[in-house]
Amino acid sequence: MKQTSIQESVQQEIGRLSQKKRKELTDKERVRLLQLKLYQKAKQEKGYKFYVLYDKIFQRHILAEAYKRSKSNDGSPGVDKQTFSDVEKYGREKFLAELGEELRKRTYKPQPVKRVWVEKENGGKRPLGIPTIKDRVAQQACKLVIEPLFEADFDESSHGFRPKRSAKLAITEIRNNLKSGSQTVYDADLSKYFDTIPHDKLMIAVKERISDPRVIALIQQWLKVPIVEEAGEYTGGKSNAKGTPQGGVISPLLANIYMNLLDRIVNKPDGYFARLGIRMIRYADDFILMSKHINQETIDKVHGYLERMELTINTEKSKVVQAREESFDFLGFTFRYDQSIFSKHGRFWNIFPKSKSEKKIRTNLDTTLKKIGHYPPAKVVDELNPILRGWMNYYRIEKVSYTQQAFRRLDEYLRQRLYRYYNRKSQRRTRLYGQQAYQMLVKDYGLFVPYSSSGLRPAKAQR
Hints:
By secondary structure, this protein is of the alpha+beta class.
C-alpha cells in the first residue's frame, strides 16, 4: 500500500510539472521532473540498466541547481583555496559554462582532495575530505542524475543521507520495534567503513543500474583522486583500490549503494533473517539488528557477508543487548527501559540524548565563546543560536524522544557559561555584566531558550 501511494504521488507530481511549458519551469523544477521520471522508470523495471545518462550531467539547469545546493552547504575551500565568494567575483555563469564544457568534452579532471581530521565523540579523530568547489559542483550534478536510480532500489530500513529520510525516522523505527517486542539488539560497529569500501565490488553494484561508460569513468576518477594530507604529502591516487573520502558530495550515495547489498540480504522477505523475525535499521555505516531473539549463528552470518564485502566489524565495540535489562546507544541517542514517574508499576522506553552528546554541545559552546571573545551581543547570539537550534532540533522527536532533562541541563549550563563569559570582560564592562547576561540576551537580542518548564511534570523528576 505504501509503495502504491508513493508511485501515485510520483505520477501526480510528474503530471503537474509536465503541464508547464519548459521555459516556465525553474531549474529546480526541471531537475525534479528529470529525477521523478528516472525514479519511475527504475521502479517499474527492476533490472533496467540506464545507458545514456552522461549528457544530462552537464546540462545548464543541472549544473545551476548543483551549484546552488553546493553553495547552500558552504564548507571550507579545497586545495585551490577557492571560496564561493571567489566564484561569484569570477562570474557564476562563466564558472558553470566552463565546467559544463569540460564535462561535455570529457577534459574534466578532478583536483586532489584536502584531508583534515575532526574530533570524534570518543576522543579519537576521523578523516574528512574536502574537494574543490568545482569538484563539489560536478559531483553534485552527477548525484542529481544518478541518485533516483538507486533510490528506487534502496531498502526502507536505510535512513542516512537519503532524500526525505533522517535519523529521526531511524529512531522512530527503533522505538516502534522495541514496543512491538523486538527487544534483543545487536549493536554493530564497522571499522573505517568509508576508507575500506573496495572499488571493484562497489563498481559492480553501481553497474547494476548504470551502463553508461562515461558515468562509470567519471565516478572512478573521483574514487582514484589523490588525497593531500595536512602535512602536505600525497596519498591514494590511481593505485588506490579502496575507500571513498568522507566529505565528498557523492561519497554518501556510493556508501549507501554498497551497503544496500547487505540491506537486501538481511531484510529480504522470506529470507533467513526474516524467518527469524530479524530487522536491520541502518544509517550510513551505523546499523543494528533487532528481534525477539538473536543467536550467535545469526551474528556469524552477518560477519560472513561483511567479510565477503571486504568490510570489518569492530568486535570489541559490537555487542548483543537485552534492551529491557541494559541501555544501548544509536545515532547519539540512549535507549533505556525506565520506571515511569507517573505510575508505580509502569515502565516506558526512554529515548534521550546520550551523555557524550551533551558533553559535545557544551564543548561546542565553549569553543565558540572563546572564539568570539569581543563580539557585540547581537553577534554573540548569531553565533550561538544555530548551535543550540541544530542540536535541539536533532534530538527533539515528537512523541518519541524525551528531552526535558537534557534541555534543562543545557539551559543551566548556558546560563552559567554566559555569566562567566561576561564577568571576564573586566576591562570592558557592559550592562550584560553579572547575573542578568542570559536574561538580557534572550529578551533584547533573541537568544534561543533551550528549556522552559511547561508545568506539566516535575522539572527535576528522574526518568
